[in-house]
Amino acid sequence: MPGVRRTSGQTEGVTPITFRPRLAAAALLPLLAAAACTGGHPASHGSSSPGAPSGSATVSSSGSASGSPSAQGSASGSTAGSASASASAAPTASTSSTATASAPSGTSSSGYPVAIWPTYHHDTLRSGVLPNAPAISQLRVIARAQLDGAVYGSPIVVRDGQGDLVVVATENNTLYGIRDDGQIAWSRHIGTPVDGSALPCGNIDPSGITGTPVYDPATGLVFAVAFLAGFHHELVAVDAESGRLAWTRPVDPPGSHPEVEQQRGALLIAAGRVWIPYGGLYGDCGPYHGYLVGVPTTTPGGSAVIYQVPSSREAGIWAPPGAAYDGAHLFVAVGNGAQTDPSGPYDMSDSVIELDTAGHVVSYYAPANWADENAADLDLGTTGPLLLPSGQVFVAGKDGKAYLLRAGALGGVGGAVPVLPLCTAFGGAAAAGPFVYVPCTNGVHAVRISGSTMTPVWRAAPPGSPIVVAGTVLSTDRSGTLYGLDASTGAVRWQTALGDSLTRFATPAAATDGYLYVGTEHGMLVIVATR
């Protein structure tokens, strides 16, 4: 978004914008009409927010109708198919089944499924901790559901009258609802993904839904962003129980270059909006920028808040956890930017940024050597901010250091903050009690936090982004082994082979009935019993 930045001082770019809902495919109209008639999610347009602050612009966009997602996967039909430990064939992506639960005991007072693990690492703090979990006594694979593409995001989990329902997304742009016995309840194919060979760089082929979806218990909808052939990103809202497509809308920021923008970071629901982070492709090619886009959860119309990191290029918000939220403000980690001259103006790259829900910068932190780190590609953008109950913000990056910041006053450029030489970190950390568990290239590191002091405690072999369940740290490796580590010592208590290799940033999801869920590189959802 050229021109939406300042060249000196604290920089920011915020754009309220109205998108037109994506309704071009005629086959979508009956579904949307049905949603409107049943008190679901009718389309409405809304208007752009007035009074955009300095360094921002108010833009109206009609949204292009080209390449709109097809209605593959009808709202009715026979069961989509099933898969279990016997590995039956996946259903075709053009079919889905309907949910049959009536007055389910697993629903909330709103009538929608209960949120169990509704977002990346469980909650908006990105804690990675499952409350009220039963004790773990084993790790045992009990089922595998075969899908139609690689899984890069985390599964999410809801509960309805039939039990747990796991929602998982693939790079073939298909969403699945799967029971904890491996039976596929529904599938919803959004549209043709982008052929990786058509992109100027990158390492995902095909490229479809990469970021972790999010469930909204207030609407009963699951939100995901699909990268569609023709190079555009589409937010889709589907009913969690049935997979019915409620609505879609384009979410590429005006002036952006979607062919080099990657939506890898997890989606977040906060302050009535779905927050969507963008970074670049592997290889840092082209004129991409870091963006955080927030659109309403209740309608495909309405204004969107768009924050653009004001580097001349790069400075992506790409880490798998996406944004975090403490109930008032949003926090993002930003990657390397184009500015490598330390005497030049700071461009908000290599940073942690705190934003209000209107997209205004509240505070930020960057190391004093941010320009050198940009030049060497050693930035903070490789893990998401982890928000601690103390009001502190933990982040670690490629530079081998961990930082402990204070929400509301992150420290500015080169601020005096606690710093711990630790490891090269990638993915999403977890926090339980006084410990933070950090995914590093040489394994998970446990760090004890006491006040402003960080102390390394142990390191274990698996490098995968960890979660914590019943005093056990659960982490994976690329070969497809799931480890259960003692949270106090790092000792391996259990391990099991999942039966497929994993993507680099794979992380488990968990449910309170004693199951874990992991998506794999070759398109499986693996279900693991813990008792």
Automatic annotation (TrEMBL):
Chain segments carrying region Disordered: 39-109
Coiled-coil ranges per UniProt: none
Alphabetical list of SUPFAM superfamilies matching this protein: Quinoprotein alcohol dehydrogenase-like
Membrane-crossing residue ranges in chain numbering: none
Domain (Pyrrolo-quinoline quinone repeat) ranges: 153-255, 428-528
Record-linked InterPro entries: PQQ_b-propeller_rpt, PQQ_rpt_dom, Quinoprotein_ADH-like_sf, WD40/YVTN_repeat-like_dom_sf
Natural source organism: Acidothermus cellulolyticus (strain ATCC 43068 / DSM 8971 / 11B)
One Pfam family this sequence matches: PQQ_2
Designated name of the protein: Pyrrolo-quinoline quinone
